[in-house]
What does this fold into?
Amino acid sequence: GAGVSQSPSNKVTEKGKDVELRCDPISGHTALYWYRQRLGQGLEFLIYFQGNSAPDKSGLPSDRFSAERTGESVSTLTIQRTQQEDSAVYLCASSVTDRGLPGANVLTFGAGSRLTVL
Amino acid sequence: AQSVAQPEDQVNVAEGNPLTVKCTYSVSGNPYLFWYVQYPNRGLQFLLKYITGDNLVKGSYGFEAEFNKSQTSFHLKKPSALVSDSALYFCAVRAITSGTYKYIFGTGTRLKVLA
It folds into this structure.
């Protein structure tokens, strides 16, 4: 598609439930990042996918968080047994990394998925 | 540790006046530097980047930024602010940590342009 698409845009859930957030990157973008943005704060790196390489999961805050990506397409971020501190906007971004391509290394962000845990 | 600092939580400027939003970084090697803007309930939008070459880079909406290697800074500037520039601005650096590229973001600076 023309941009990075994220769904749902808004999710309200009860503490203890599992949630799944989806990111559809720009076609051809090999790199995909997930970030978390708590209210009034900066971006916190969660996970990075690059092509078929093993993902960099170093930013995942706990084992309740996991993410998958099939090839160079859709990614899902799953949060199990949600807690109130998980409430945040989850942002997905993608980019091309080939320096010869236009827009290389520039992250394009989706509009985010706002998660509220009651 | 590799990091980005935006020392001001908020910057207020009168419409028509020049604006500066500050950013300093700490990263090993040659940095790739970026500025993004975030409007309410929207994702981040790319403004400009520095990778190599001319220290003064021009970007979208009349913004520019100057790379200063000796001061490890990449301040965002605009000669004449508009009310519509009011938004949250993020500075970012691409760095290699543990063998992979990460984009490290500052905590953001809220710009308020007053009519």
User: Anything to note?
Assistant: Chain B has no helices and twelve strands. The two ends of chain B are 40 Å apart (CA to CA). The mean pLDDT of chain B is 93. The CA atoms of residues 38 and 44 of chain B lie 5 Å apart.
